[in-house]
Amino acid sequence: MSLIGFHRILIGTAILFCAGYALWEFAAFLRSGETASLLIALVFAALAGLLTFYLRHLARFLGIPSETDENGSSLP
To answer: What is the rounded average pLDDT of the residues 43-48?
Structure first.
């Protein structure tokens, strides 16, 4: 397994953790009504979204050339 492949797995795990914790804190908010739980849930949901964006665009962040050109067609 390449280092990039491992990085993808690691980021995917972080996304699952952030989304799961956001749901956990949102459930705690629904039970208790504490504003802090809602705030934490929103922060972790945003983190899950940002990590998802990062994972989808990992090649661009790492500077790896794309296999398609600007028009979306495959390069030879």
So the answer is: 98
**CA dihedral (7, 8, 13, 16) positive or negative:** positive
Q: Which two tokens stand for residue 6?
A: 């491992």
One-letter amino acid of 36: A
Structure pTM? 0.78
CA distance 19 to 33: 20
Q: Which two tokens mark 62? A: 């790492």
CA distance linking residue 9 with residue 30, whole number of Å: 32
Question: 14: which 2 tokens?
Answer: 């972080």
What's the DSSP call for residue 65? P
Which residues does 39 contact at the CB level (< 8 Å), separation at least 6?
A: none
